[in-house]
Amino acid sequence: MFYHITKKVPFRKFHYDANFSKVSTVTNTKLITDYFYQGFPAKARQVFDEMPHRDLVTWTSMISGYTSNAYHSDALALFRDMLAAGVTPNAFTLSSVIKACKGMDLQTSGEMLHAQAVKHGVDRQEYVENSLLDMYAMCGRSMSEARAVFDCLMEKSVVSWTTMIAAYTHHGDGHAGIHLFRQMIQEGVELNQFVCSIVIRACASIKNRILGKQMHAATVKSGHDKVLPVGNSIVDMYCRCMSLLEAEQYFNEMHEKDLITWNTMISGFEQAIPQVALSLLIKMGSNDVTPNCFTYTSIASACANMAVLNCGRQVHGTIIRRGFVGNLQMGNALVDMYAKCGSIGDSQKVFNEMSRKDLISWTSLINGYGIHGYGKEAVELFDEMIISGIEPDSVAFMGVVSACSHAGLIEEGLKYFNLMKTEYNVLADREVYGCVVDLLGRAGKLTEAYELIQRMPFKPDESIWGALLGACKMHKNAKLGKIAAEEILNLKPKGAKTYVILSDIYGSCKQWDEFAETKKLIKETGSKKEAGMSWIELRDEVCSFVVGDTISPYTVSIYKTLRVLSKHMNDSGVVSDFNALQHNFEPVTR
DNA sequence: ACTTCTCGGG
Predict the structure, then answer these.
(1) What is the DSSP letter of A457?
(2) Cα dist. A326→A93, A387, A480, A566 in Å?
C-alpha cells in the first residue's frame, strides 16, 4: 500500500535522516508511477512537488508518466527543469522525452535530444535507438531518414520492426509496411500484439481483405486477438475492406469491448449503412459505454449520409450539451452534415463559429457550396482560404473545380485546374481529372473532354468515361457517346446503366435503328439498371421514392404534383430533359 | 522504483 509522505514528516530531524529520506524517495516515486498509471497526473505532480528530495528516477518517472498520459509539453518542460537542477539524464529519461517530441511533432527538439544521447553515451542503447527511430519516422516528411537509421541498426528488435511498419502505414504506404512485415517474418522474429495490430491496420489501409483475414487467423492462433487494440484493428479492417458482415460477426463475438471498439464500428458503418451507426449509438449507451467526440463526429456523418436534417439538428443539440463543439473534427463533420442535409445556412454558421479551422473545414464548406450550386461562393471561399495561409490539396481543388462545374463556371474551373501544377505543385489525381472531364463535358466541350481523357497520366476508369457519357447524353452526341459506352463496357461488361444511357442518347438523336439495337441488347443481357432512390424527411418519418414506384402510399399525389411542377416549368420556359426519359418509362399510376 | 512499438474522426 502506498501512502503520501511529505516534508511535514517529523522523523526527518533524527540521525537516520539520510536513510529515511532515501526510503521516502523510493516510496514516493512508486506513488508517482502509480498515480500516472491510474491516470491522475495532477496527483502525481503534487507528490513530486512536495517531495523533500528527488533523484534521477523520480524525475524520469514524472517525465515518462506525463508522456504516457499524452501530457507531452509538460514532459518536455519538466525535462528542462531537470537539466536546470543539474541532474544528468539516463537512457530511461531520454527515451521518454524523445517520445514526447514525437507526440508533439518536434523533430528539431528530437534532434537536440539525439545529440544529448550521444553526449551521454546512450544513443546505441536499444530503447533510445527505437524511440529515436520512431521520432524520425513519424516527424519526418518522408521515410528516407528513418529508413537509413533502421538499416544501420546493429540489432533489429521486434520493436524496431513495428516502429517502421507503423510509420510506413501512417505515411499512407501500407504496401511498404506489409513488405517489411514479410521480411520480419523471414528473419524469424516472433509476433507480438503491437505487430499484429499494426499489420492488420496496414491491410485495412490498402483494403486487402484476404491478407487481413490471414492476419486475423494468425492472431487467433497466437492468442493476440484477445488484446483489445488487436481486436479493434480486426473490426476496423473488416469495415474498411467493406466486409461489414464479418465486422459485425467479429464484433459480436468479442468478449470485451471498449469505447474504441464501438467507435470503430460506428465509423465503419457510417457511410455504407448509416442507420446501423445510429442504432449502435443507442446500443452502446445501454452497454454503459459513454460516447465521446469521436463517436459524435461519425454520428454527424451518418446523419449527413442519410440527409436527415431534423435528426442532424437533434444530434447537434446533444453535441452542444456534451460540450464537444470546440473540437475541430467535430466542427468539420457538422459543416459537412448541414450541407448534405440541405441547410447550407447552418453549414456556414457552424463554419463561422469555429475557433480553429483547418484545410478540411474549408474544403467541407467549399464542397457544400458546390452541392448547392453556389459556384461563385465556392470560388470566393477558396481564395479566402488561400489568403488565410492554408495550403490546398487535391481534395480542395476537386471541391472548387466541381463547384465550378455544377455552376457552369467553365473558365474559373479550368483556371484552378491549371493553378494546381503551376502555382501549388499539387498533383491532380484521377478524381480531379474526372471533375475536369465533367466540367468540359457539361459545357459541351466534348472533344476537349475526350482529348483530356486520352492525355491524362492515368488509365481512365469507369467514372471518368461515365462523366463523358453523361455529357454526351446532355449534349446529344452519339458518336463520342458510343466510344465512352464501349470503354465502360470493356471495364464493366454487364453494366445495364451504360446501355440505358446510350439508348437515351440514340433516342434523343433520333437514331432509331441504333436505339432499337441497344434496347435489344439490354433485354438480352437480362440485367436491370439499379433504380436511383430519393428520400425526404416527413415529420418523424423518412419517405423514399424510386422510379416507377407503385408501393408508396403517396404515389398518386406524387405524380399529380409532378405534373403541376412540369407544367410550371414549361410555362416559365425551362427546357426539361423529359424527352430522353419518355423512352424508358411511363409514370405508373394506380 | 523509471524507458521504445498497436486501435477510432473529410
Answers:
(1) S
(2) 34, 24, 51, 46
CA A411 to chain centre: 32
pLDDT: which is higher, A457 or A17: A457
**Strand B, nucleotides covered by protein (CB < 7 Å):** 1-10
Does residue A116 lie within 7 Å of nucleic acid chain B, judged by its CB?
no
Q: Is A439 exposed, middle or buried (0-12, 13-18, 19+ CB in 10 A)?
A: buried
Q: Which nucleotide is nearest to A360 (CA to C1')?
A: B10
Q: How far is the C-alpha of A284 from the C-alpha of A257, rounded, in Å?
A: 10
**CATH 1.25.40 in chain A, residue ranges:** 457-530
Cell numbers linked to A492: 464493366
Q: Helix, strand or coil for residue A517?
A: helix
Angle (CA) A21-A62-A75 rounded to 5° is 145
Which residues numbered 312-371 in chain A sit less than 7 A from strand B, measured from CB? 327, 329-330, 332-333, 336, 359-360, 363-364
Instruction: For residue range A483-510, list pLDDT tens digits in order.
Output: 888 888 888 877 777 777 777 777 777 7
Kindly report, residue by residue over A14-36, the tens digit of the pLDDT. 444 556 677 799 999 999 999 99
Residue A24 CB in 7 A reach of strand B: no
Q: What is the three-state SS of A347-398?
A: HHHHHHHCCCCCHHHHHHHHHHHHHCCCHHHHHHHHHHHHHCCCCCCHHHHH
- Give the largest CA-CA distance in chain A: 112
∠ CA A514-A517-A520, nearest 5°, is 150
A437 and A467 Cβ atoms separated by less than 8 Å: yes
The CATH code of the domain at A457-530 is 1.25.40
